[in-house]
Amino acid sequence: MVERVSDVVTLGAGPAGEVLAGRLGEGGRAVANAKSCTRRFVVARRRFHRRAKAAAAVVAVVGLAGCGSEPSATTTPARAPSGEDAVPALKRDANKLLAGGVPAFEGRIAGLRGTPVVVNQWASWCGPCRYEFPFFATLARRYEGEVAFLGVNSQDSREPALKFLKRQPVPFPHFVDPDGKIARTFRGGRSFPTTAFYSADGKLSYTHVGGYPNQAALDADIKKYTLDG
What we know:
Blueprint: H1 5-11, H2 15-24, H3 26-69, E1 74-75, H4 86-92, E2 97-98, H5 101-111, E3 117-122, H6 127-142, E4 148-154, H7 158-167, E5 174-177, H8 181-185, E6 194-198, E7 204-209, H9 215-227
């Protein structure tokens, strides 16, 4: 006669367990059945976890592949071009959206030292920006080699900005400025558009808040705050 329940449990399921359970009566049979159910549950749970881990691995691989395959029109310059390459690099990077925030922008301004710079803050949703953008396209080509131009796409979204640049291309790149931090470095961000003028030694000389009514007005400020400064 078995006196301890543990003696029955350690025998487990199978024929031996069933014989013992029969000999022990209803109480022994209940214990043997419980042990058998417990083992089946443990096996099923292990299988479930193995399958869940395998499925999670597949999802992770697919997710990473999706992230990697998405094309990006935003590039982060490893180092700001400087010296003789600084001005030609603007044309190579024309209509690109550049990441890097304030450090990248200030690095680009520093790299252009020796050449005055005009910076236009714009957004795709800004009507006055659309109106004056052709002025910058024309004058950037006119003053190529004499004055450098940069754009700051502030408080905007990437896709609308890219569509804007596709409709109105200009011969210079643009820094992405979603929170307006770059614009604030040249006293911008309060009004759209805003244009900043840097002297050849890299110092901010003037900030024009608001849009230009015509190309002649922008041209006058370029001459006054960059070429004549």
